[in-house]
Amino acid sequence: MSPRIDLPSGWVTFVFTDIEGSTRLAQLLGPGYRPVLREHRRLLRHTLAGTDGAELLTEGDSFFLAFPDAATAVHACLTAQRALSGHDWPTPEAAPRVRMGLHTGYAEPRDGEYASPEVHRAARVAAAAHGGQVLCSAATARHADPLPDGVSLLDLGLHRLRGFDDRERLFQLVAPGLERSFPRPRTADAVAHNLPTQVTSFVGREAERAELRRLVETYRLVTVLGAGGAGKTRLAVELASGVVEAYPDGVWFVDVAAVTDPGLVAFEIAAVLGLRPEPGRPMVDTLVEYAAARRMLVVLDTCDAQPAASAEVISRLLAGGRGVRVLATSRESFGVPGEVVWRIPPLSVDPGPDGGASDAVALLLDRTTAARGGRAPDPAEQADLRRVVRRLDGLPLAIELAAARLRVLSAGQLAERLDDMLGTLDAGREEPEPGPVEAGWTGNQQDTVDLVAAATGAAPATEASRAVQRSANERHLTMQATVTWSYRTLGARSARLLRWLAVFAGPVDLSTVQWLLDDDPLDPLSVLVDKSMVLAEPHASGSTYRMLDPIRAYAARRLIEAGEEQHARDRHVAWSRHALDRAHLGPDGRPVTLSLYALDPLAGELRAALRWCATGGSARSGLRLAGGLDQWWRERGLAREGRLWLFRLYGRIAETGEPIPEAELAAAYHMHSLHAGADGEFAEELRYSQRAEAAARQAGDLGLLARVLAGRAAPLVDMGQFVEAERVCREVIDWAYAQDVVSDALLAVYNLAELLWRRGALDEAAEVLGAARPVEAARPVERGRRSVDMLLGLVALARGDLVAAHEHLLVALRSRMSHGYLGRACDTVNAIAVRCALGGEPVSAARLFGAAQATRASLRATPGIYGPYWLARQAELRRTLGDAAFDAAYASGAALRLEEAAALALDLEHPDLTTPDSPRFTAPAPRRSTAS
């Protein structure tokens, strides 16, 4: 086309075109570049020949044209792009990718040229385009309307063109036969970042933000590790948004979750940075060259979708220039030199130092308020909200999903439903069925697929890319989808270990995992830790391993689907029985004094094992487990829970018909009777005591029968039948001596001593207790309670012997606190309070009474045979001190923890020290045994 003499004037549409990456294309093709350039010019001129556009300048690979009509200019560019893409080039790599820019403005030509800023604006619009793309200004879009059928202009938003202070709204020409997906326009935006805009507030994590910011400022590669839904992306974006000003070349967010092929990771990053493939050159080389001289932060999100490819690109970027820093989020680390791994903790579920709501509760409150239309949860729901976040282990995604459920449930209802965690959290969100394409793709963005397709000459996989984009977007819609995202990357051994670990309720050590699998678990366990599906928590004695509850719920569901639940949970029950047995033995395998503190860490596991025994396992195994927790339940104020577990196990026996030996039933009924008495259910206590006796007599085990008969007096005492109870105790003790099983009747001895003390038969009580001391010392399950010393201390108080009382009671208190008998320790603190009252220390006495009563109330313990005695002593103390002073001291004690009250009691001055003429100060004497 020859230049026109008459150039258009008035409203003129200017068009600039050039070949993207022409220098690289010339280097690639060598002598073959000139024919390609000539063919490119021919096609453009042939296309424009039928229009009235004026060719003003042709230089190298560039064209500058002017059109009197915007619609004609748009049509000419459309036709030219179709001609270029449909041409048969020598090779796909030789196809020139031409970018085009249009702008319409008022201009008058002079001397065959235009001296107008509108020309420069058109040139900047073209410079913002990518190869194969047609961009036009808002003025062109306005003047070109209406467009032909099937042709449209896509609004790309406002952009600041280089050299212009205002912002220009750019539009992309969209039509059949034209490529649609491109990186962001190459414009000089004032804020150099593409961080996603958050629609909800960021809650908490002040300490984590500060720590992570320090790491990013210090190290060039920081990887935020955590389980799915832990809040990695949200924290990374929040941090990055606060450091934009520190990176003059931008902060760029790249979602690797949507990348379907390892080779596309570099393309995804390049697309965000506005880079296009250069023919014949690896994309990563183009990327490294671009980043080498720039100072920028790249936020790579969800790198676990393509860990190896992400690691390779990161290594190349960091090696290519010192100004690049990378903040990555992943469920597993890269293991590359220079990487700093920071594991994101769950949101704190503990109140802050100022007593305010924990981060987890604050998030739940915020999201629940939004879910309920701006209405904040009722203050009465606070306790249940704390229960919810603790069950969810502070996992942010789980909390967000829980808040959605609070649209239709109260906090209490939600807390009760979390036994079915996945079903409750994912309610109302149907899991999408994967189509044939989705089943084989792990994710990719449409623009990257099309970008690579255009670079390689392949047809875009539009259906596949749309499918995997849905997969990437839906991975956080439900807890199941989130965990599945990681689960599908596991090998067979790691997946099996994850499923089997679901049977544990809490942290486990390495030997426990090995016991469960009967195999070395180090390799699969390492994989699970690396992928953040299991948390490793180092301790001085060795690391422990645990799953967050939402992940455990998912693994438990997979365990059932795999048909492995019966075997895995039976192994867990066997482990629980083994752990209970070990709690009674020392390192040498010999029995040791039972410490209930050894059972505290096992409580969660034993409850999980009991649940299985009562629903799908062996009730007989469950009764054995319950027996191991016999004293623990009562001493922790959980007698009612113990009764409920026994009722469930009885139901399981009736359901399955499992045969249970009479001896084991007798032991269970006896335990049930003691639980009922501690829980104030005296009729139930008597009923199960009678059942225990009947079963024990059928079993024919004299020791067992002695233990059961020794408990016969307890229901009578609880119902106030003290004379009958004393008669029964004497009968049982006499029978036990005759059968040589008196050590098994120790409970009857204690009950008899209490009854004798109650009616003032102090000498006989002391005699009975003296005979019982060696029996108690020989029984590891009894001696930690030091019941003999406790009762001897009460006898001494009744006699007015404060020295003996002090020494006996301190021995009992020290042993009970050392071995975890907290309920019994309260009785001892009460007794020491009586000692203080009788010894002229009324304020200390009132404080100890208050502390003991507060702990007993928290344990929901019945007062027992000592109750009237404590009340009478407190009434005397109130008369001595007066109401105001007694109440103040009592309230002060009630604020103490049991450990603090015990320490106060153990630090009391010995009564001897208050007597100046005490023999202790007048003559040397052998040290008195505290066990006398």
TrEMBL record:
Residues 13-126 form the Guanylate cyclase domain. It comes from the Bacteria. Signal peptide: none annotated. This is Predicted ATPase. Gene3D superfamilies: Nucleotide cyclase, P-loop containing nucleotide triphosphate hydrolases, Tetratricopeptide repeat domain. Pfam families: HTH_77. SUPFAM superfamilies: Nucleotide cyclase, P-loop containing nucleoside triphosphate hydrolases, TPR-like. GO terms for molecular function: adenylate cyclase activity. It comes from Micromonospora chersina.
